[in-house]
Amino acid sequence: MLSNLRIFAVNPRKISSLHINNMYCSRITSSLKRIKTHVPLGRNYSSLPGLIGNDIKSLHSIISPPVAKIRNIGIMAHIDAGKTTTTERILYYSGYTRSLGDVDDGDTVTDFMAQERERGITIQSAAVTFDWKGYRVNLIDTPGHVDFTLEVERCLRVLDGAVAVFDASAGVEAQTLTVWRQADKHQIPRICFLNKMDKTGASFNYAVESIREKLKAKPLLLQLPIGEAKNFKGVVDVVRKEKLLWNSNSDDGKDFERKPLLEMSDPELLKETTEARNALIEQVADLDDEFADLVLGEFSENFDLVPAEKLQTAIHRVTLARMAVPVLCGSALKNKGVQPLLDAVTMYLPSPEERNYEFLQWYKDDLCALAFKVLHDKQRGPLVFMRIYSGMIKPQSAIHNINGNCTERISRLLLPFADQHVEIPSLTAGNIALTVGLKHTATGDTIVSSKSSALAAARRAGREGEKKHEQNSEAERLLLAGVEIPEPVFFCTIEPPSVAKQPDLDHALKCLQREDPSLKVKLDPDSGQTVLCGMGELHIEIIHDRIKREYGLETYLGPLQVAYRETILNPVRATDTLDRTLGDKRHLVTVELEVKPMETSSVTPVIEYAESVSEDILKGSREAIENGIHSACLQGPLLGSPVQDVAITLHSLIIHPGTSSTMISACVSRCIQKALKKADNQVLEPLMNLEVTVTRDYLSPVLADLAQRRGNIQEIQTRQDNRVVIGFVPLAEIMGYSTVLRTLTSGSATFALELSNYQAMNPQDQSTLLSRRSGLT
């Protein structure tokens, strides 16, 4: 990551000895004054080996490496599979840190928030840029906890490839499935790294089988472990038939030897490796026609003669087509197997030019970028992470935000290195940049160079659409797909320490919402309190903690509440008339409509218009009608929760001339409220997918406890010596479950939760809930 600039910043005396083209000199010296303040020297960062002294790459190759040499990758996994430890080792071996950080010691590069270091978990994804053997790697370490699924989703959206990390003793776990589905959705090629091969109970074969069975993926075994659990010594490179052994006396795992497998010294291992290589060649030949022709033509007699380079090229093509996933193994904590993983990232995962993005043809060489994350820095203001798809970004340049339809100016451009940043003069397509100065850009916004560039791209897209007979609006075609923000399932009130601090709290929440789109903030219309809506207990707890630490506000949280929904069981008709005279103007609206339940699930109401409603009336008032419908469905008659799974048909609408659209909305809204009160209402509660991993000894008490919580057990699987209980449980019953589970199992069990859907409550539970809410019980 801009190694020579880092040298300038850390050691200005070396500048005189560097031979740099004159055209860059003035730019560098002016950058130097700024850079010094941006590279804090609290942690030992190192420049790349071979870049010290006179052996310096050109400034251009460091700022803008060739696109074919760029890799944008993410590290994704279930919680506690070893993502952050793997990232830390990658940074150490690539030469960007001089000491190995540890999650348990709280000194890793990518977990830089106080909450992350205290809890030993990743909360925010962190971007790191480094070089490895001539390749520029932009790596993003993502969270594994279910409460921060959106954080993973928005990062996967801008990546070209991913490394899925697995705990070799557990194989595929609950959150692994979730992130794998997200990667499928964004069509991301990936490789698998079976971590923790040194852990008691680690099993290479079990982990590979779970990838095949649960993820429905085809694993390509590129490595075999030498020993397992405490006997794990190294790995075998199946492609090259070599063994990689790490020096047991080495503290940092940098020293390892690569030896060819020989008949004399390792007859058993050689036999096993030859069989694995032949199976790999057959597997790849089945998936890649070009490689199949080569194997059948030249090497059909003896697979041993297939060159490693040809096999690696074929594996690259198969990985890119997402037909199979290469599998590697190692132990990040014990510093084994990380360097071959880095080689595999550069060899098998795609460069930006190998991914096909349909929208690029419309922009030609104009700027097109996607803002995928916003951070708030106390000194610099909002920092916006961007993936550049085409064109170039420079500081002091104006950009146009298509989503917000506004033009802003980038004041500075930085390369991200977790919480350290280095300023640069420009950045080209395929890179991930950090921009300063954008006040209105939010997650998921599409950025272009100017409004005229957007219009030109829209015209090209329009012509293309006409050829294909597609009927999308111009704006829709130009917008890069953002991320779907899941609906929050928990909410609680938040109070400032005094009324005078309310504006400060509002500002803090506004900043946090821009950073985290899954956090919703609303105002309770009855009590006037501020309500926080989040993805889980941990999510809300972290937000509360951040308000205290980052904004210095001692806020008070109300009890956690579950986000219920409401629906109706039978169709109802209602009529309403609103007649008001304001000043000398009479506003008169009469509405007749029908509300009926839907078979399929829909969060927003489905709006239909009867044939009797004339098109002329609808033309001027459709927006007002729909606003009235949506506002009425925000609060149901039972709990004041949003109403879903309903269809609304407008049968009649009579509007007096001169009636304002606000009055039309008010009348429609009141009419729907009247209809909802007349109908038989049903409360819907969030149902969670639950996966509990527990030892056999504690299985019975866990099952008994889940039965009391209205749990529905689907199956009990065996995972090594443990049992995995899979089922559904209502969210209301699972509050504070982690404490109870620890008590029941002496701290040996773990669990994972994920929202499944909303289901109807039974009448008895519903009446209990309503009584409790109304204060009768």
UniProtKB/TrEMBL annotation:
GO-annotated biological processes: mitochondrial translation; ribosome disassembly
Keywords: GTP-binding, Hydrolase, Mitochondrion, Nucleotide-binding, Protein biosynthesis
Record SMART domains: EFG_C (SM00838), EFG_IV (SM00889)
A single GO cellular-component term on record: mitochondrial matrix
Reaction equations catalysed: GTP + H2O = GDP + phosphate + H(+)
GO MF terms held by the record: GTP binding; GTPase activity
Annotated residues for binding of GTP: 77-84, 141-145, 195-198
Mitochondrion in keyword set: yes
Cell location: Mitochondrion
Any coiled-coil regions, as ranges: none
Pfam families attached to this UniProt entry: EFG_C (PF00679), EFG_III (PF14492), EFG_IV (PF03764), GTP_EFTU (PF00009), GTP_EFTU_D2 (PF03144)
Broad class of the protein's primary localization: mitochondrion
Domain Tr-type G: 68-353
UniProt key word Hydrolase: yes
Domain of life from the UniProt record: Eukaryota
Record family assignment: Belongs to the TRAFAC class translation factor GTPase superfamily. Classic translation factor GTPase family. EF-G/EF-2 subfamily.
Name of the protein this chain belongs to: Ribosome-releasing factor 2, mitochondrial
